[in-house]
Amino acid sequence: MSFLNGKFRSTWIRFTFCFLFLLPLLYPFLLKPGEQLYSDHLAKFILGESVGRNGFLSGNLVLPSKSLDPEGHYCPTECIRIGEELISPFPAALGYVYAAFLPWSGIVGVYVAVTILILLSFLLLSILWDWDPIYLGVLVLATPFLVNGYFFPDVGIASFLFIGGSFLFLRSGNSSSWLRFVSSGFICASSAWFRIESIVFPFAFLFFLSIYKFSNVKERRKILAYSFGFLVGVALLFGIQYILYKHPLGPRFSFNQPTMFLLPWKKWKIYTGLLIANPNRIGFFGYTPAFLIVLFFFVYYIFIKKNPFKRISALEISNRELFVYSGLAAFLALVISAPNDGIIDFGSRYLHLSLPVFAGMFLILLENIGEKFRKIAKIVLFTILLYSVYISFSYTQILGKYGRTTTKLNTIYLEQKPDLVVVQIRTYSQILGKYFFQTPSVWLMREGHIKNFFSKNRPDQFKKILFVQTKASIAQNLNESDPFLKNKYYESITQALGPDYKKVWSENKEDVLLFSMERKK
Fold first, then answer.
1. 319 shares its domain with 417
2. Number of domains the chain is built from
3. Where are the transmembrane segments (predicted)?
């Protein structure tokens, strides 16, 4: 559908596009940036602030607790030690983006900028799919493309770069300059600075282009130029990361590496969590079940209807179709090599770049339904999609509610004014929020960690220490009337601090037990 051919005259279609394009602009109000400083989001804020404090010369984490824990054994955010530096496993490039925005716009500027990139991504994808309202509607309303891109800025930036580079290639004609194709490959490779797994998608696109189009002399020029730009981008990424982190794939790969190379039949829990669900998160197909039908159709379509070994098929397949097929092939490769994201995180974040190609394959599925079953098949598919629309709405609500909850935790920190914060689970360093750099905090998970930490750091240097204990660790022995009874973690704290400290405040929340220990005068 095009603005130029007069098909965009329908009032309903104009209203639909306006609504879909404006929806990203609502997210800074639905998921307020100031309420997103917890868990991974807090870790990215810490990385950005550290880059800024280091004068943009290093990603070495600036932690208030570094003098207390120079080895980084009890780092309150996810970190990897490389030489003398504590490095975040999150992309250094994202830290530089945060560092650029934080001084003048605060955390709000980061999320507003990412919102604009998501809107531009929608615009580019709409052009690629000829302004088809079904395509954009499925992507925006029935997948987590919007909420993931906004909620996780590294995902939003990486997807914009990949989509932007792909758009540059797919909208170029045979007469376009060689530099344009080189640039498109380089921009696609640049997305890996923010999400290392995104590198699989342009690689798969090149593979499919070579199979279907390389025999065409005109296409060969485009493919070689795209390949050159892509390889230069990848070489630059790998080279810099090897120099900085002693590994070409960077710190995040090192962080996830133990589970990436498990044999496939030993990764069923990861696959289940990634694709369907686990006790804490919903997976890729759990969010959009219609895409499971799309995947089965793709396997049939690519091997039966578009057999790559038929030479004539090269004349029947557009570059946009190859973009879809290669994206689905990349999806399968990523699933097989999936790290622990399937267990501990939301599956579609890791597989985010698959969402636009699944939406594209969904349209191909609709076009290939036989006339006899077309009506009932469409009713079934769109009914399934309504479930996904409901999930999108619910997911946004849940994230908003959790963000508001963590903001309330920040007030406890301000009221207690501790000299040290101790968290049993890293996630609960969220209690510090934007105040993270004002007070030292450490992650002491087990009783032995408490004993070891306070044997190296004299307790009497702290007047008040705020502890955040996860109730999961005491669930079996928890006495709601007195949660400190038979609480081994609390017992180890009293032993390590000695008789000079007493409990002066506590609050028994749904998932955590918070309490302050104050030194007697």
1. no
2. 2
3. 12-30, 104-129, 192-211, 223-245, 284-302, 322-338, 350-369, 376-395
Q: Residue 82's closest CA among 246, 239, 243, 242?
A: 246
- For residue 204, being part of any structural domain is answered with yes
Q: Which two tokens stand for residue 378?
A: 């469409």
Domain containing 507: what range? 410-519
Least confident of 12-26, 282-296, 344-358: 344-358
Q: Are residues 433 and 324 in the same domain?
A: no
Q: Please report the pLDDT score of residue 344 as a whole number.
A: 39
| Number of Cβ atoms within 10 Å of the Cβ of 9 | 8
54 Cβ partners below 8 Å, 6+ apart?
60, 62
Among candidate residues 56, 37, 74, 33, the one with its CA nearest the CA of residue 436: 37
Q: Which of 429, 288, 271 is nearest to 340 (CA)?
A: 271
Taking each helix axis from N to C end, the angle separating 133-141 and 92-128, rounded to the nearest 10 degrees, works out to: 150
Q: What is the pLDDT of residue 256?
A: 64
Q: Which two tokens stand for residue 380?
A: 């079934």
pTM of this prediction?
0.92
User: Cα(16)–Cα(458) distance, rounded to whole angstroms?
Assistant: 63
pLDDT of 325-356, one tens digit each? 999 999 999 998 887 654 434 557 889 999 99
**Whether residue 17 is found in the same domain as residue 149:** yes
pLDDT in the model for residue 4: 38
The tens digit of pLDDT for each residue in 267-286 reads 888 888 889 887 778 889 99
